[in-house]
Amino acid sequence: MEPISFALIAAATTFTTGALLHEIQSNLIYPTKHRNENRHQVAPLFAEDGIPFCETTLTTEDNVKIRTYVCKPRAEKEAKKRPTILILHGNRGNTGYHSKAVSKFYHELKCNVVLPSYRGYDRSEGRPTEPGIKTDAQTFLDYIKRHNVLKNTKLIVYGRSLGGAVAIDLASKNEDKIDALIIENTFVSIPKLYSQDYYLYPLFSAFFTQTWSSEWSIGEIKTTPILFLSSGADRIVPQEHMKSLYELSKTTGIKKWMEFPNAKHRNTFHQPGFFEAIQEFLSKALAKK
């Protein structure tokens, strides 16, 4: 076989393998089945719960239309007194999974709530990728900061699971715009998370296109207060990931660890003391900013 032919075959094989692995990664990390479940339940639940809301369409810098719910009191004076919380959902969820949390944040913690959908989720256009979701998160933040009512309110970014990685990345690039960060059951990186469950993944680490390396990004957060909410019985993202992120964080702001020993990956917010822990953290963190 001529060397050039062998090189071409090797290159084609590498490209095909890489493309296949990219597709497998995308399906594992952003599963289609879960991206649109419960999406029609949000608005009726907000209405039933007495939460004023509107749904807004934004256009990203790469021309993808993404959507977000904004929940705030109708009276501007009241809305301006509240902090605003941006909720970033996980990979197997969408806005429909957070309606109960929104109710707690709005009614009990007295927050304005921004609840967006990444590209490819719910009614947002496009297909989810790491660069794309990072662009979406920045678009949501920029929207809040130019909103005529929300722009001068204290801003909390809260992310769970994949949303925690999105939140860490966003906070690392926008410390001057974010007053507090809350992360729940997130991971140090995608390769390290999946290498625990799929023994062949380390062999193909060069082909990882979705890395979400929070272990690096969290070190870039210098002063923002951070609350770590961790489930002790999490089998999807083992607690060691959250412990590593806590240790890697060097923020000079408040750094608080809250553990729920019997909680699993998806039921942390049902645990006694969950929202009380958030309220206590915010009362201190926002007072110092």
Automatic annotation (TrEMBL):
Protein name: Alpha/Beta hydrolase protein
GO CC annotation terms, alphabetical: membrane
InterPro entries: AB_hydrolase_1 (IPR000073), AB_hydrolase_fold (IPR029058)
Alphabetized Gene3D superfamilies for the sequence: alpha/beta hydrolase
AB hydrolase-1 domain location: 83-189
Keyword match 4Fe-4S: no
Keyword Hydrolase attributed: yes
Superkingdom classification of source: Eukaryota
The entry's keywords: Hydrolase
Gene Ontology molecular function: palmitoyl-(protein) hydrolase activity
